[in-house]
UniProtKB/TrEMBL annotation:
Keywords: DNA-binding, Transcription, Transcription regulation
All residue ranges annotated as the HTH lysR-type domain in the record: 2-59
Keyword Transcription included in the entry's annotation: yes
One Gene Ontology MF term: DNA binding
GO CC, one annotated term: protein-DNA complex
Protein name per the record: LysR family transcriptional regulator
Record's keyword annotation contains RNA-binding: no
Gene3D superfamilies (alphabetical): Periplasmic binding protein-like II, Winged helix-like DNA-binding domain superfamily/Winged helix DNA-binding domain
Entry similarity comment: Belongs to the LysR transcriptional regulatory family.
Superkingdom per UniProt: Bacteria
Pfam families in the cross-refs: HTH_1 (PF00126), LysR_substrate (PF03466)
């Protein structure tokens, strides 16, 4: 019988592209990953990878196995969810990942309600950027996570995850109260407060400004919207802020844009029926 952990590494390799990337994601050494994949080849009796120096590519057999392995992993997840559903109710650890604004606004009432209705649940929240959440779900560091994407920067469809929509909100241009910007185009010559490179907020801002023919001039970098709004209120620049964070604005004028941000509740494929996951989804969506 094929080892599930080795199959998971093969799926990681197909997704990430290199053994070094798999090793980094799994906190293994590249040598350990290579040994596990070689052991998987011995188990199948087939060459799964072609090695040229430090590079590896999938053989036809490797691609077939990786495709079926993803189905197997999802089926195992669904099986675990079905077995968990036979218990008396949601219980045990539920690891939730969410971005800071959601941790402050969306999660507290949900945590209170879940704790009251399902006292056997052990709720654990971790702040995580939506860009990092899919990997945390796949690697089983999280059970549920809130993911976001913008209409100007749509998120990739991850075949290992399922999700349900939670929120669709307006994105605002935040300017100092005394500022005279009325459109995104007016902010062309303003200093900007941008999120860190690699985050969705950063990419969405670059694309929104590019649509108006310019690249924003960065003065400050901040990832937490409360910090962003404090800097805007202090006259340090302008920024894009989603509606969920707009209530924190003081000394700031918010200009509604045509941009939208969407938030989804995501979990591993096959986990929708897990009682703990289902309870959190129902609480957050009001279902």
């Amino acid at each position: 019988m094929l080892d599930v952990r080795k199959l998971s590494l093969l799926c990681d390799l197909e997704r990430l592209g290199t053994i070094a990337a798999v090793a980094q994601a799994r906190t293994y050494t590249p040598s350990a990953v290579s040994q596990q994949l070689s052991a998987l080849e011995r188990e199948t009796g087939l060459a799964l990878l072609e090695r040229t120096g430090r590079r590896v590519t999938f053989t036809p057999a490797g691609r077939v196995l990786a495709r079926h392995a993803a189905t197997v992993l999802a089926a195992l997840e669904e099986t675990g969810a079905a077995l968990a559903a036979l218990r008396t109710g949601p219980a045990g650890p539920l690891r939730i990942g969410a971005f800071p604004t959601a941790v402050r606004t969306l999660l507290p009432p949900a945590l209170v309600a879940l704790g009251r209705e399902h006292p056997a649940l052990e709720l654990m929240v971790t702040e995580v950027d939506p860009a990092d959440a899919p990997a945390a779900l796949r690697e089983r560091r999280l059970d549920v996570a809130l993911l976001t994407d913008y209409d100007v920067a749509p998120g990739d469809v991850d075949p290992d995850l399922d999700s349900v929509p939670l929120l669709d909100e307006t994105v605002f241009l935040a300017v100092p109260a005394a500022g005279d910007c009325a459109t995104l185009g007016d902010a062309r010559d303003q200093p900007w407060i941008l999120a860190s490179e690699g985050t969705q907020c950063h990419e969405a801002t670059l694309r929104a400004c590019a649509a108006h023919g310019y690249t924003p001039r960065v003065r400050h970098r901040a990832d937490d919207f409360a910090t962003v709004l404090a800097l805007v209120g202090a006259g340090q620049g302008v920024s894009l802020v989603p509606g969920l964070a707009a209530g924190q604005a003081t000394g700031v004028r918010l200009v509604a844009l045509s941009l939208r941000r969407r938030t989804r509740i995501a979990y591993r494929k096959g986990a929708a029926g897990h009682p703990s996951v289902a309870a959190l989804v129902a609480t957050l969506t009001g279902g």
